[in-house]
Amino acid sequence: MIYAENILICITIPLIFSLPFVRGSARRMIASVLTGMVVCLLGAYISGFLSSVSGMSPEDTAIFISPIVEEVMKLLPLLFVLFMFETEDRHIVVTAVGIGSGFATFENCCYILTTGAERLGYIMVRGFAVGVMHIVSMIAVTIGLVLARRYKAMSFAGLLGALSISTCFHALYNLLVSEPGVSSVIGYILPPLTAILLYLPYKRLGEGTKI
Amino acid sequence: MKYILYQNFLNIIHMVLMVYIMIRSYKLISNGRKLMLAVYFTFGTVSLFMEDLYWIAYDFLRPETRMPVAANEIAENAAFLLLSAVLANVVQGRLKDAAHELIGTVLFAMASIGLWIAWSGEWIQDIVGGIAFGYLMCRVVFSMKLSDALSVNEWRLLGLGVFIVTAGEIILFYVPESVKMILDLAMYGLMFIIAVLLVAKTAAEFKGKCRTQALLSLSFACFVWSLCSMYMSEKYYYIVFYLVSMVSHPLMLRALEKEVEKE
Q1: Which residue, A22, A106, A202, B246, shows the most beta carbons closer than 10 Å to its own?
Q2: Is there a contact between A161 and B47 if contact means CB atoms under 8 Å apart?
Q3: Chain B contact for A144, CB < 8 A?
């Protein structure tokens, strides 16, 4: 057993103290990373609660419940920023990347403390896969949101659609890595590969739309 | 392994088709015109691709086990919502202009959800999926009406056909086995005729007036009806309607390309 709250406090205090000393995008990024870490912990609480209510095993919870809870939790602060502030598109992207990376960082910290960090190879795979996966899913949603806002085509259906894509992507990753062997390898390759595939349209869209 | 591959053969073909559609629709994104439509459509196609991918992965890794929460259905619902968003951006108007048709669609959607629950017993999944699918159905019908995709007589025929299919599927629960087989076959026949007529109507629109809004509505209607029929079918009939749905994807893409080229 690990004390996730204590780990969160330990990691976030230096970040919180750094906030007054930075401005602009740097401050936004740090605040988003902090938010990502907090929503990761809240997501774990909710997943744990749903797991105990439904009587699912931890593995089934990771495959079926966590993707939905985590993606919703990551999206909520982003939506808050999007709808409450007149934020520029590039700031929304910074916020999304910050939330995704904060979430992944905290999740990785807890994972490493639980399982140990002896095997560097595995740790790197874990970093590349999970770390990238959370950022990729956030970027995919953000592209949709930013474009929808820019073209005044924001709709509840589109929003839910974007959220569902990221949830399915997350669920697919969790499913693939749940079994050892080829499926795990495919699972670990999936996020970096998607990141590359997503970067190309992102860059192309960015040229015309100043994302 | 071979069995699973055989079982998922159609899904694999569908995935290949989705990749092709994704590449073509991505070209529409890079084109830059009517970007939102292209983005929503591409994301919708990605969702359908991921639905298949998840299904196959699950079948390989956990064969014959029940999914408590089906991520592939989440992806499918995402596709419905994103495709609805495409239509919502193309055809806009007042709801009361298509009031009768929308009421009929809502009733049909509710009856469909009821039938799915009766067949599968999955309350939550069928209601959630049914709402997303029902929303797409309403969007399609609304767009068809506002774009004058069908004549008055065609609307009546479609309404009658859909009513007979729904009533027939409900009656199937109460009739004896001997009647059931014949009625079941008749319903499949009717569903197939409606699907073929919708595809033919879309093809005729492509060759005829080629009104882009009507084209989009009709091609989406082909897709929606093929899915409706798939959900009501099993075994070989399911495969037939799956193939019809595969035909509808290129039609949807081509209609979208026409809409984007229009400006």
Answers
A1: A106
A2: yes
A3: yes
Would you kindly state where each structural domain of chain A is located, as residue ranges? 4-209
pLDDT band at A146 (very low <50, low <70, confident <90, very high): confident
Tell whether B124 lies on the interface with A, counting CB pairs under 8 A. Answer: no
Give the chain A residue nearest B69 (alpha carbons): A64
Are A173 and A159 in contact, with CB atoms under 8 Å apart? no
Question: Cβ distance B216 to B259 under 8 Å?
Answer: yes
Q: Can you tell me the mean pLDDT for B55-83?
A: 86
Asked if B57 and A176 come within 8 Å (Cβ–Cβ), the reply is yes
In the predicted model, is pLDDT for residue B1 greater than 70? no
Mind telling me how many Å the CA of B198 is from chain A's nearest CA? 25
Residue B66 backbone class (left: φ over 0; alpha: ψ -120 to 50; beta: rest): beta
Per-residue pLDDT reduced to its tens digit, B185-244: 999 999 999 999 999 999 999 998 788 999 999 999 999 999 999 999 888 899 999 999
Please give the single-letter amino acid code of residue B16. Answer: V
A211 touching chain B per CB within 8 A:
no
Torsion region of B34: left, alpha or beta (phi above 0 gives left; psi -120 to 50 gives alpha): left
pLDDT at B204: 93
B71:A151 CB<8 A: no
Place of tokens 């809004």: B213
- CA B128 from chain centre, in angstroms, equals 16
Under a CB-based contact definition with an 8 Å cutoff, are residues A50 and A31 in contact? no
Task: Please name the residue of chain B whose CA is at the shortest distance from the CA of residue A161.
Answer: B78
Using a CB-CB cut-off of 8 Å, the residues of chain B touching A207 are: none
Helix axis angle for B35-61 and A182-209, nearest 10°, is: 180
d(CA B227, CA B207) in angstroms, rounded, equals: 25
Please state the domain extents for chain B. Answer: 2-262
What values do phi and psi take at B68, rounded to 5? -65, -40
pLDDT band at B33 (very low <50, low <70, confident <90, very high): confident
CA distance B102 to B146: 12
Whether the CB of A169 is below 8 Å from some CB of chain B: the reply is yes
Minimal-distance CA residue of chain A relative to B84:
A157
pLDDT in tens, B102-112: 999 999 999 99
- Count of residues making up chain A: 211
User: Would you state the pLDDT for residue B2?
Assistant: 64
Cross-chain Cβ contact A64/B43 below 8 Å: no
